[in-house]
């Protein structure tokens, strides 16, 4: 008995297109994910990183949120959206998501070889406080949180919105852990001063 991969792909893709408001949001996120993973090989050598057990503090809410965020969870639960966006609403949401993921790419490209998917101290690591890092300390998280929350609201299911909130909380927790780690690794005078000067996630707020 041969495995029909095309049928599996059809079922998987159908989950996104039938549960989410349009194929547009699914296409945007899947394109971002593919490009992000594809570029993960471009990073500098790691000198030190947070241990796996410690990283569970932010990985767990992101994992649970990711499961809730997918359309298959709503499908299994037989969940219906609380509201349905008009085409205009979906297009506005798509623009917000595109702006968010564009901000993530600006942050990643500006960070260059210092970027990592985990909390690490890269070789020759230094404080980057220009470009998007002069607006917020974690532009990648800012862009993702904005895009996730907008998408969750557009999808309109309780699980999608709860998933987006959990992912956002996980990213906030990761950002806090990263700052404690980098303050120790790069020095309180350098990274600590940066934290006191630039907002963490939300632009234009007082730094905390």
UniProtKB/TrEMBL annotation:
The chain crosses the membrane at residues 20-39, 84-106, 144-172. It is found in: Membrane. Keywords: Membrane, Methyltransferase, Transferase, Transmembrane, Transmembrane helix. InterPro entries: ICMT_MeTrfase. GO terms for cellular component: membrane. It is a multi-pass membrane protein. One of its GO terms (biological process) is methylation. GO terms for molecular function: protein C-terminal S-isoprenylcysteine carboxyl O-methyltransferase activity. The keyword Calcium does not apply. Its main location: membrane. This is Isoprenylcysteine carboxylmethyltransferase family protein. It comes from Bradyrhizobium hipponense.
């Amino acid at each position: 008995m041969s495995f029909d991969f095309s049928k599996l792909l059809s079922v998987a893709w159908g989950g996104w297109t039938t549960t989410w408001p349009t194929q547009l949001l699914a296409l945007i996120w899947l394109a971002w994910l593919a490009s992000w993973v594809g570029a993960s090989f471009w990073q500098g050598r790691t000198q030190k990183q947070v241990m796996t057990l410690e990283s569970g503090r932010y990985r767990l809410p992101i994992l649970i949120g990711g499961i809730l965020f997918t359309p298959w969870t709503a499908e299994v639960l037989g969940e219906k959206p609380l509201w349905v966006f008009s085409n205009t609403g979906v297009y506005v949401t798509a623009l917000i998501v595109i702006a968010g993921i564009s901000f993530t790419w600006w942050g990643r490209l500006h960070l260059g070889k210092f970027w990592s998917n985990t909390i690490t101290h890269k070789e020759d690591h230094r404080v980057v406080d220009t470009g998007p890092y002069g607006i917020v300390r974690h532009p990648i998280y800012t862009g993702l949180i904005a895009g996730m929350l907008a998408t969750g609201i557009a999808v309109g299911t309780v699980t999608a919105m709860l998933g987006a909130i959990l992912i956002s909380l996980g990213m906030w927790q990761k950002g806090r852990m990263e700052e404690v780690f980098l303050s120790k690794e790069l020095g309180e005078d350098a990274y600590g001063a940066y934290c006191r000067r630039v907002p963490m996630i939300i632009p234009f707020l007082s730094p905390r």
